[in-house]
Amino acid sequence: MADFYALALALALISAAVLIHFQALRALSQGQDRLAVSGHLKILLVIFGLIIAHGLEAAVFAGGYALGERVLKLGSFVGASSMSASQFFYFSIETFTTQGVGDVYVIGPLRLIASLEPLAGLILIGWSGSFTFLAMRLDWRLAPQTTEPADEPLPRPRPSTPRS
Fold this sequence. Notes:
- The protein has four helices and two strands, in the order ααβαβα.
- It has helices spanning 2-34, 39-71, 85-96, 110-139, and strands at residues 76-78, 105-107.
- It has a two-stranded antiparallel ribbon with strand order 1-2.
- It is elongated, with a radius of gyration of 24 Å.
C-alpha cells in the first residue's frame, strides 16, 4: 500500500509542477507582449521568470518529500541526520536537475518520487529551453532586417538534361 501512496503522491507532485510551469509560461508570454521595453530586457525577464518557476516546482517536490517522510512515513533520507526544509529543497533541486550528487539519498517507497522527479524536471527544463528560443526569435534582433529589393533577381536554375 505504501507504494501506491508514493505513486499517487508522485503523480500529484508532477501535476502540480506541470501546472505551475504552464501558468508561468502563460504569464511570461503575456508579459512579453505587453511590456514596452527592449527585446534584450524581455529575454532577461523570461530567463529570471523561468528560474523562479523551476525553483517553485522544486519546492513543490521538496514539500512532497517532507510530507512523504514525516506524515505518510513512506521512507527516509540517508546522509543527513535530520532533514530541514533547506535540505529537502537541496535534495529536490539536485534531483529535478538530474545533478544527483548522492550525498543525500532516499530509501523506501519515496524512491519512486525521486525516480520520477528527474523525468518531470527534464521535460520542464526542455520546455523552458524551447520557450526561450521562441521568445528570442520574437524579441531579440541581432541585425536590422532590410526590406529593400535585391538589385538583380536571383539566377534561375538551368533545367537538367537527361544523360544518355
